[in-house]
Design a protein that fits this description.
The chain is an alpha/beta fold and 122 residues long. It is built from two helices and eight strands, in the order βαββββαβββ.
Length: 122
Amino acid sequence: MHNIVHIQILVTDLQVAMDFYHKIFNWKVYISPDADYLAVFEIDNGSDSDFVGGGFRLAKGIPKETPILLYIYTYDISATLDKIAQNGGKIVSAKSSLPGNHGFVGMFSDPFGNVLGLFSQD
């Protein structure tokens, strides 16, 4: 099994990142005592042992292109994109269907220009 087990997101303002991702996705974000990772997050899917975590790493600048595209599951892509736009993010592409009836995707950028995807099955 090759699950995603850790995600790193570059940011230039730790508090903005913490607020943004908590408001949109209800991620548990807290300051880490590790000097290399200033904030870490946990994404709990309801199981005691099956969660994805990661960290926000402060950077002086964010690369123009995101080398890895991460998709986040959501039940309602349109509502989530609206919430993102209301909280400092930008909609990159609206909800669209995947070929072969394999679900739906939408794209957004966070307040730092990181581009991420949203996925839903309905």
